[in-house]
Design a protein that fits this description.
The complex is a heterodimer of chains A (about 110) and B (about 110).
Chain A (H helix, E strand, L loop, with lengths): L4 E3 L2 E5 L4 E6 L7 E7 L6 E6 L5 E4 L2 E6 L4 E6 L8 E8 L7 E2 L3 E6 L1
Parallel strand pairs in A: 2-11
Antiparallel strand pairs in A: 1-3, 3-8, 4-5, 4-9, 6-7, 7-8, 9-10, 9-11
Chain B lengths: L4 E3 L2 E4 L5 E6 L6 E8 L3 E9 L2 E5 L6 E5 L5 E5 L8 E8 L8 E2 L3 E5 L1
Parallel strand pairs in B: 2-11
Antiparallel strand pairs in B: 1-3, 3-8, 4-5, 4-9, 5-6, 7-8, 9-10, 9-11
The chains are: A mainly beta (about 110), B mainly beta (about 110).
């Protein structure tokens, strides 16, 4: 079973701040890395699926990078807004057809 | 396109009982995965079904079982419920695997008294 770690566990920022958090995963047998946003009382929402070393994905003010050689991914939020408050989850899979194994998430709180 | 649906949304049971949860995936998705979410533990993978076969299994006791039907709908069963089984159970579907995006349902909140 993969061990996926996320840091920090929680984060509180002011509106307008930019922030980033980390997802670490085993670099051996890497296949894909998924990022999700999970708002309270809603379903987890898929943000990105990343596979290639050096890959960078962007969706509005949110972007993510991937380093498969060292086993980490960063998620960046530029100019945080209160609506960005959520738990951000990453999940790794080590080959096609295996399960997504999730980290425990980073809970972001943005104050106006 | 309809999303992933789960029934029931809330359930209260007592210790020793059994429970069955249902998940209907997005049309065309053949893979259905189940997760348990408890405070402080994050999303714990239970099992995944693909084309009616269990493809992957997490580290849960045999009291947790599942199945998938020919229309890709899936059920999860928990027998001999324990207090620690109280959790949010999420199912998620995707077309196949690999780099396909996995979409989550709203979850079933199970409370065991």
């Amino acid at each position: 079973i993969l061990n996926v770690e996320q840091s920090p566990q929680s984060l509180h920022v002011q509106e307008g701040d930019s922030t980033n958090f980390t997802c670490s995963f085993p670099s051996s047998n890497f296949y894909a890395l998924h990022w999700y946003r999970w708002e309270t009382a809603k379903s987890p929402e898929a943000l990105f699926v990343m596979t290639l070393n050096g890959d960078e994905k962007k969706k509005g003010r949110i972007s993510a990078t991937l380093n498969t050689k060292e086993g980490y991914s960063y998620l960046y939020i530029k100019g945080s807004q209160p609506e960005d408050s959520a738990t951000y989850l990453c999940a790794s899979e080590d080959q096609a057809g295996t399960a997504l194994i999730f980290g425990k998430g980073t809970t972001l709180s943005v104050s106006s | 396109k309809a999303g992933v649906t789960q029934t029931p949304r809330y359930l209260i049971k007592t210790r020793g009982q059994q429970v069955t949860l249902s998940c209907s995936p997005i049309s065309g998705h053949r893979s259905v995965s189940w997760y348990q979410q408890t405070p402080g533990q994050g999303l714990q993978f239970l099992f995944e079904y693909f084309s009616e076969t269990q493809r992957n299994k997490g580290n849960f006791p045999g009291r947790f079982s599942g199945r998938q039907f020919s229309n890709s709908r899936s059920e999860m069963n928990v027998s001999t419920l324990e207090l620690g089984d109280s959790a949010l159970y999420l199912c998620a579907s995707r077309k196949d695997g690999g780099t396909d995006t996995q979409y989550f349902g709203p979850g079933t909140r199970l409370t065991v008294l």
